């Protein structure tokens, strides 16, 4: 089976378009999985924060006459999730920016490879 150069270029172009489309599907899947993990992490950390608060209150009530554990020093190490999230927001923004830059570079490069396949020579 012989095909003309034009048809071969079009087939190649369509293949490149499919590769680009698969990149967007994979990117959406990755973002969805990341959001899912973040949601799980949030709920887990909120539960741990509640447990820490309850343990601290219970220990203080049961050992008020002589406190053998310095809960204040542990509180400094035990940072509540709401504070952690605020500190990490700037990092998340930077990571998202570089991710978007990488995505656009890939898209632009793919379009530059695809376009000549559909443009006839003069």
Strands, helices and their partners?
Layout: H1 5-62, H2 71-77, H3 81-118
Helix pairs in contact: 1-3
Quick overview:
This protein is mostly helical. It has 3 helices and no strands. 84% of the residues lie in helices and 0% in strands.
Provide the succession of SSEs: HHH
Mind describing the biggest β-sheet? none
Q: Percent of residues in beta strands?
A: under 5%
Number of domains: 1
SS-based class: mainly alpha
Task: Explain what the structure shows.
The relative contact order is 0.11. This protein is mainly alpha-helical and 122 residues long. 84% of the residues lie in helices and 0% in strands. The chain has three helices and no strands. The chain has helices at residues 5-62, 71-77, 81-118. It has one domain (5-118). It starts with a helix and ends with a helix.
Notable characteristics:
122 residues, mainly alpha
